[in-house]
Amino acid sequence: MDAAPSMSRSVRTPGYWYPPPTRHEALQFSQPPDMTSGGFFFSGVSGLNAEVAGDRPRRMKVATISVHAGTPEGPNAPLTTPVVQSTTFRFENAEAVQRYARGEGGLYMYSRDENPTVRAAEEAVAALEGAESCVLFGSGMGAMTAALMALVSGGDEVVAATALYGGTYKLLRDVLSRFGVRARMAEPEALVEACRRGGARLCLFESPTNPTLRVVDIEAVARTTRGSGAISLIDSTFAPPLVQRPLALGVDLVMHSATKFLNGHSDHLCGAIAGRKDLVETVRGVARKLGAVLDAQVAYDLLRGLKTFALRVERQCASALQVARWLESNGAVKRVWYPGLPSHPDHDLARRQMNGFGGMVTFSVGTREKAFRFWDRLKLVARAASL
Ligand SMILES: Cc1ncc(COP(=O)(O)O)c(C=O)c1O
């Protein structure tokens, strides 16, 4: 009869798991303990990115990536990504701890620093955005806070578009200002000029903007920002990867409230920063200290939501265009803002820059009273704040 597998063999996972990011700041030994030979719980990786980066890179469409990214691969791998619901991870011996501290060997220590399920979801979002790296957070605001705290310091100036999500604007106005970060606001159409003036550390903008869905020339802003030596950061929540590819247009970092289109089910808060590896890893380092990290169960739900991402977003774009056209043809509606309508001031730019026009539509019925009356008479549409 075969001998029973040893305990250490039975708890090892096969080689399908995602490795943690290589940069570790969690443990720093001034005098490393002198121990020999170690092992590790989670071993190597053959995830989607490994294949994309292999000898013959496979070019996949966003729709395909959204189904497959973040899914374990390898012999006898589970079809769905396991939820690793553990705050902490075992080390086989002190030598393994030292290797972890050096960022070697694909080891995990503590889920505020890194967690395999969260790692898989980060790989998925990075793949969707065509990013070198991604770090996920417990909310979009967690992502924005960590990014700004990581990349700007007291005395620095941020060029920011006036049309910003209210939470982001208040973060700049009420919180970061107390730490000496100055915000220079510019209208979306004046952003390129504002960046050309130089002197800023970071340019922060959205496209399409909330609520009038103005479309910013992303490529021009990214180029000018880089030319001035600053970092460009776009909040692309309104235009997820299928609709817009900010990194391909030259932006350094893209942020998402993944609470919205990426998750897609209005059941979890989540935020993402993706883009240039050096910048993302700087943000990750600060994220670990701030602690607004993503929970493994939410990471699993994000991966699950992503499987239908392309179907949902395609349908949302198609429905939004249909609704916008209908509203525009309705005599009771005074004005409709939707980049897919020829009447929108940025329609031509949107056609050049976006694949589809997004799922958000804004319209006016003329007065506050009429708007309230309309709002109170809604039957099927939920009176709720989110997208
Ligand atoms: C454009 C935009 N950015 C950021 C956020 C903040 O994201 P979260 O609610 O996930 O913190 C939101 C939320 O509504 C948003 O619409």
Which key terms come to mind for this protein?
Aspartate Aminotransferase, domain 1; globular; 14 helices; Aspartate Aminotransferase, domain 2; seven-stranded mixed sheet; 387 residues; binds pyridoxal-5'-phosphate
Structure report:
- The longest helix has 20 residues.
- The protein has 387 residues and is α/β, with parallel strands linked by helices.
- Strand 2, helix 7 and strand 3 form a beta-alpha-beta unit.
- Among the domains are: 189 residues, Type I PLP-dependent aspartate aminotransferase-like (Major domain) (Aspartate Aminotransferase, domain 2), CATH 3.40.640.10; 68 residues, Aspartate Aminotransferase, domain 1 (Alpha-Beta Complex).
- The chain is 36% helix and 11% strand.
Distance between the termini: 60 Å
What gross morphology would you assign? globular
SS strand fraction? 5-15%
Q: What is the fold named in CATH at topology level of the domain at 116-304?
A: Aspartate Aminotransferase, domain 2
Ligand names: pyridoxal-5'-phosphate
CATH superfamily of the domain at 116-304: Type I PLP-dependent aspartate aminotransferase-like (Major domain)
Order of helices and strands: HHHHHEHEHEHEHEEEHHHEHEH
Oligomer: single chain
The main pleated sheet reads as: 7 strands, mixed
Rg measurement, Å:
23 Å
Provide the CATH top-level class of the domain at 116-304: Alpha Beta
Whole-number mean pLDDT: 87
* Number of helical regions: 14
Low-confidence stretches: 1-14, 23-56
CATH architecture classification of the domain at 116-304: 3-Layer(aba) Sandwich
> What is the percent of helical residues?
25-40%
